Amino acid sequence: MRALYAAATGMAAQELNVQVISNNIANLRTTGYKRQQPHFQDLLYQNLRRAGSSTSEQNTQLPAGLAVGSGVKTSSTARVMAQGTLTSTEKEYDVAVRGEGFFRVTMPDGRTAYTRDGSFDLSAQGQLVTRDGYLVDPGVTVPNTATSVQISATGAVQATLPGQTAPQQLGQFQLARFVNKVGLESIGDNLFVETAASGPAINGVPGTEGFGNLQQSYLEEANVNAVTEISSLIAAQRAYEMNSKVVTAADQMLSTTSQMFRS
């Protein structure tokens, strides 16, 4: 019976839906996290009678066809790249992006990764690094004698040094954006890498056309809305239960049919 298979695909789809929702909720406090949203598509149909087919020798046509669907599939779990709320941290090496753009990070294997998590620290050599020790690209080195560090909205990094009245220029942040940022691949640790779907990175200076600006001593929160996720969880649970009832009903119908043949 087709109903069993169709309902089974519905249960599998809602199970994956719950997995996505649970991951969003788990990352509610993850800096720079972008929530995922599953998308579904119906499966192939068996056309028993096609719409528009002839119904008589006088060329009358069938106004509506007879097609039986075979269920549902998950087509994608796309990232929602909307801006998250910026929260003050009072740490001078924390930086948030307001608007478009990703920080560039050099991985240990030489690859370039991209992130919205601007919770940076200094290495033992004074280099600006991520929480995992990956270098920020382009590199910025802060002298150990610096008394304070200022990061402007346009990404200029300056330090105040003893005995100097004017701040010293240390480096310049750059951001990367993508034609299709939803096509980026998440590799964990708040990092993304480019794919054929995302297109190559377009690099630029914060505050210029197409790029957001920076805000020092702030971090971007996850763009997860707890109320929305709980509502989606309840809806997914109800959909799963309804599909399970279809399986039970179809099983009872098959049992009834089997008993009729036995008597």
From TrEMBL:
- Flagellar basal body rod protein N-terminal domain span: 4-34
Superkingdom in the source lineage = Bacteria
Asked if Ligase is a keyword of the record, the answer is: no
| InterPro entries with a match to the protein in the record | Flag_bb_rod_N, Flagellar_basal_body_rod_CS, Flagellar_FlgE/F/G, Flg_bb/hook_C_dom, FlgE/F/G-like, FlgG_G_neg, LlgE_F_G-like_D1
**Where in or outside the cell?**
Bacterial flagellum basal body
Q: Where's the Flagellar basal-body/hook protein C-terminal domain?
A: 215-260
Q: Give the Flagellar hook protein FlgE/F/G-like D1 domain ranges.
A: 96-159
Q: What is its main location?
A: other
Cell cycle among keywords:
no
- GO CC annotations, alphabetized: bacterial-type flagellum basal body, distal rod
The residues forming a coiled coil are: none
Which of UniProt's keywords are assigned here?
Bacterial flagellum, Cell projection, Cilium, Flagellum
Q: Name one GO biological process term.
A: bacterial-type flagellum-dependent swarming motility
What NCBIfam families is this protein classified in?
FlgEFG_subfam, flgG_G_neg
Q: Which family does it belong to?
A: Belongs to the flagella basal body rod proteins family.
Which PANTHER family does UniProt cross-reference here?
A: FLAGELLAR BASAL-BODY ROD PROTEIN FLGG, FLAGELLAR PROTEIN
Quaternary structure and interacting proteins, as annotated: The basal body constitutes a major portion of the flagellar organelle and consists of four rings (L,P,S, and M) mounted on a central rod. The rod consists of about 26 subunits of FlgG in the distal portion, and FlgB, FlgC and FlgF are thought to build up the proximal portion of the rod with about 6 subunits each.
In its UniProt entry, what is this protein called?
A: Flagellar basal-body rod protein FlgG
Q: What is the gene name?
A: flgG
